[in-house]
Recover the amino acids of this structure.
């Protein structure tokens, strides 16, 4: 079993007769992994299973080779910012993180230094000595993030971490996630803000009704969805000519001119073949400026897989 | 590893103790604890005043103790005056009674030896009754009152409810506040969290209730002159104080461990707490062997002075319930400590199965 992966081996969790997640098998490499799915799909259950807040009804979970039921080892490596918007009564931002760090056995000076560092990362230094009860939603979100990163974990688990954050802080938070991922750590993010998932994720997991519907890199997943032709946007100087040329291909099912008249949108059932032929076309006299897939996004995949499922 | 656990327990205690000791919801526990101390304090002020008044009268109208004790019903007012001298105060009242109505005289004579106020009631010159007031305020009498208050109110109600309030909240309160998960996301094993929380609860309750015990003891003594107080303290008084304080701490530990377990397991701790209260309260009414299955039995066994028998038990019922033999000090302490450790160990095991599912709670 890989020591740098988060693994779920046939994990199920039922709440009485209610399904939380069912037969989940995953092997997640380091990087940013996004967990997406509609409300009630089992995202939080999956995160709580990972961190031992709930136990699997069956199956086995390992975080970098360690079982969640071993908190002494696990929580030195894992930081979890939960969805619960609640804190110990009367706690200040600084006191909350400091107390948490003391539980790790850090001496007072070290705990104070790490607290200050974490608060600085989330820009809460000025409000650190105010009571959390008086914080705004965004500040509470940031103090939770600070608590999760304060002990410099190898695995960061975040449940809707971007909720309530203003655009500037949101951008900084995403940068922080990228930095963590670049250092070879795991950043496991549950979110419903799909365009941001696209921006940051190395891989994603799509959950629906407790089942993993899709997982992996987005392009790989998209290419597996064959019932929906792949959409490719080609920006060029001769869109009309290009459209008629492209439409000659058998696998192209639709070609649309871009509304601004400076490109075409092509729908094809054979992406690889299309790209191969496109290389020849691009060398022609169409003034091709860029070629980009238009729907290999998490949002598209989500709509194709979850949207259809919910319509059935 | 042991050193690590200790440091984690101390870290948990640091967080929990401040929360528990200074919580707004603990105010009623302070009131419960301080109520008997306040009553003893008020009593000491009152009895001191009475004592000073009687002492002053005794100087002006001296009466010998043995002479006062020699007075019996049936004696005439003149005979009483002959033995004790003139009373420091007397009342007389005439009334008509019988058929045909006849005139009668009721006399009341007041004497004091400086400690007890004695009243003699005469009808038509013959003594019909004797009343004593300002009594029960002897140091030995007040020790019995202390023993009764300690065993019937302090242990059974104040410490019981105080521990219920503090210890059930250690887990259940955090479940309701949705903040328990922070502990479970730290590298502290759950049984260590249980021990840390228990120690913080024990520290808080032990400080509150042993301080109250000491205050009550002080308030009991402050109404008396220094000589009898000094005599009492050096003839077992300090031991009594140590015993009562120790029993308070043991009670906090034993009840505390039980309430911590209840708060850990039960969504609504009120029902099992009420059942436990019922069991502990009917302890006086149950057969001897069953008494031994209650916490209060061992705590009462450890008390240096036995409380006077419960007068509320009907005589017919008294015949049915054989009083249990008091256990020895060592046995009493050993049972309480063992119970606490066993319940704590069970709580530690149960905590390993604890899950965070606030929506259900």
């Amino acid at each position: 079993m890989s020591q740098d992966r988060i693994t779920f081996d046939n994990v199920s969790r039922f709440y009485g007769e209610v399904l939380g997640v069912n037969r989940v098998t995953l092997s997640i490499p380091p990087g940013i992994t996004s967990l997406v799915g509609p409300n009630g799909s089992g995202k939080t259950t999956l995160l709580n299973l990972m961190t031992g807040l709930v136990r699997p009804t069956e199956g086995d979970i390992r975080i970098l080779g360690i079982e969640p039921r071993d908190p002494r080892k696990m929580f030195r490596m894992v930081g979890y910012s939960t969805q619960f918007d609640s804190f110990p009564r009367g706690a200040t931002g600084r006191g909350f993180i400091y107390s948490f760090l003391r539980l790790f056995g850090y001496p007072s000076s070290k705990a104070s230094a790490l607290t200050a560092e974490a608060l600085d990362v989330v820009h809460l230094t000025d409000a650190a000595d105010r009571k959390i009860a008086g914080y705004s939603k965004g500040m509470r979100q940031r103090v939770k993030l600070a608590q999760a990163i304060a002990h410099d974990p190898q695995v960061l688990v975040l449940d809707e971490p971007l909720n309530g954050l203003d655009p500037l802080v949101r951008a900084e938070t995403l940068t922080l996630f990228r930095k963590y991922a670049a250092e070879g750590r795991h950043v496991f993010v549950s979110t419903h803000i799909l365009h941001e998932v696209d921006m940051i994720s190395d891989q994603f997991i799509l959950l629906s009704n407790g089942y993993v519907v899709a997982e992996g890199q987005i392009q790989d997943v998209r290419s597996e969805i064959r019932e929906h032709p792949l959409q490719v946007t080609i920006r060029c100087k001769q869109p009309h000519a290009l459209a008629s040329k492209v439409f000659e291909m058998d696998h192209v099912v639709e070609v649309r001119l871009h509304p601004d008249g400076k490109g075409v949108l092509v729908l094809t059932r054979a992406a690889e073949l299309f790209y191969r032929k496109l290389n020849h076309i691009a060398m022609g006299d169409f003034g091709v400026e860029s070629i980009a897939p238009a729907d290999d996004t998490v949002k598209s995949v989500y709509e194709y897989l979850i949207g259809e499922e919910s319509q059935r | 590893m042991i050193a690590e656990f200790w440091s984690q327990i101390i870290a948990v205690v640091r967080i929990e103790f401040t929360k528990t000791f200074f919580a707004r919801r603990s105010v009623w526990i302070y009131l419960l604890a301080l109520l008997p101390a306040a009553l003893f304090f008020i009593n000491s002020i009152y009895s001191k005043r009475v004592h000073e008044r009687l002492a002053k009268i005794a100087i002006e109208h001296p009466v010998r103790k043995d002479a006062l004790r020699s007075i019996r019903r049936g004696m005439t007012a003149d005979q009483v005056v002959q033995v004790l001298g003139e009373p420091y105060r007397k009342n007389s009242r005439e009334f008509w009674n019988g058929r045909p109505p006849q005139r009668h005289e009721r006399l009341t004579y007041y004497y004091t030896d400086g400690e007890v106020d004695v009243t003699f009631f005469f009808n038509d010159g013959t003594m019909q009754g004797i009343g004593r007031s300002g009594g029960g305020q002897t140091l030995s009498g007040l020790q019995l009152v202390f023993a009764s208050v300690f065993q019937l109110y302090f242990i059974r109600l104040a410490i019981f409810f105080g521990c219920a309030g503090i210890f059930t909240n250690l887990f259940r309160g955090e479940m309701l506040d949705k903040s328990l998960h922070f502990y479970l996301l730290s590298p502290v094993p759950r049984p260590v969290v249980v021990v840390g929380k228990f120690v913080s609860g024990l520290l808080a309750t032990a400080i509150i209730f042993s301080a109250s015990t000491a205050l009550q003891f002080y308030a009991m003594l402050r109404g008396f002159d220094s000589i009898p107080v000094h005599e009492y303290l050096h003839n077992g008084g300090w031991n009594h104080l140590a015993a009562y304080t120790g029993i308070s701490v043991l009670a906090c530990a034993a009840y505390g461990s039980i309430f911590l377990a209840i708060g850990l397991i039960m969504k609504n701790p009120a029902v099992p707490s009420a059942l436990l209260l019922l069991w502990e309260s009917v302890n006086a009414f149950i057969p001897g062997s069953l008494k031994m299955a209650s916490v209060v039995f061992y705590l009462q066994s450890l008390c240096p002075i036995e409380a006077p028998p419960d007068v509320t038990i009907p005589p017919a019922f008294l015949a049915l319930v054989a009083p249990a033999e008091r256990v020895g000090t060592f046995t009493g302490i050993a049972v309480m400590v063992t119970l606490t450790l066993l319940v704590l160990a069970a709580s530690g095991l149960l905590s390993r199965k604890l899950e965070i599912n606030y929506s259900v709670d």
Notes: The mean pLDDT of chain B is 87.
